[in-house]
Here is the input.
Amino acid sequence: QVQLVESGGGLVQAGGPLRHSCAASGFTFSTYAMGWLRHAPGKERELVAGISSSGHTCYAASVKGRFTISRDNGKNTLYLQMNSLEPEDTAVYYCARLSSLNADCGNYLDDNWGQGIQVTVSS
Here is the structure.
């Protein structure tokens, strides 16, 4: 079965970096688009970064220039490097397999998720 296991996350001061990893198994990782979603209290869940099977990346406007999504198909692993973190980035972050993803991250369909990891950015 599909398994997505995230690691990383934690507590960081504003302006600091964090890096997440997501180990994927149970499917052919290289053939799927992948993404990182986040869900903050009182807000809707949003796709912050997506990467197609061919490596094309897209980002939400709120994180563009600060976050970088990447993938290593040889290791079946997805990454999210987060720099210049802001208190508004505080949320639970989920690795997701995407059954579809358009070029600007505006439309996507997610069909499997990891357990989620907490990111807390203190001011």
Summary: The mean pLDDT is 96.
